């Protein structure tokens, strides 16, 4: 399997993605989109990986851990005991090795990077970065965590699995954008 990271995030007008270890907004349709994108596979015998940092893992409410129907992988420089809930990895390279040569070999269809900020940045700087699925929340929210600056060499693309146009829920407008890394 050739690993291609797909990043998925929602950011408000100032590129904020979180506040106090939580989401700054509650958009049911956007959360359903996240779940559908990160869970759906074409091959029923495979699952998708959701790759996240330790703080993102810790911010997931206990009743939702591990994220269902996905292989949860947690990046951390610390030694973590996640039991059966998730696979700890010290680096992106270690995660990729686990997916391609380790216990997950032939079991993974897609790899979704789900945060936080430093994990998004590292993933975008890695040779595995392929696409960014970014929900643009068209409102300002108070945030203490932000999506990193988008790298050069991204182009907007269309994905048939992504709703087109402006969506609205709870008087908050948002729009899904898909960026792809242009190969050099």
From TrEMBL:
Its EC number is 1.5.1.3. Residues 4-181 form the DHFR domain. The keyword NADP applies. One of its GO terms (cellular component) is mitochondrion. GO terms for biological process: dihydrofolate metabolic process; folic acid metabolic process; one-carbon metabolic process; tetrahydrofolate biosynthetic process. It catalyses: (6S)-5,6,7,8-tetrahydrofolate + NADP(+) = 7,8-dihydrofolate + NADPH + H(+). Keywords: NADP, One-carbon metabolism, Oxidoreductase. InterPro entries: DHFR, DHFR-like_dom_sf, DHFR_CS, DHFR_dom. One of its GO terms (molecular function) is NADP binding. Pathway: Cofactor biosynthesis; tetrahydrofolate biosynthesis; 5,6,7,8-tetrahydrofolate from 7,8-dihydrofolate: step 1/1. Pfam families: DHFR_1 (PF00186). Key enzyme in folate metabolism. Catalyzes an essential reaction for de novo glycine and purine synthesis, and for DNA precursor synthesis. Belongs to the dihydrofolate reductase family. This is dihydrofolate reductase. It comes from Trichogramma brassicae.
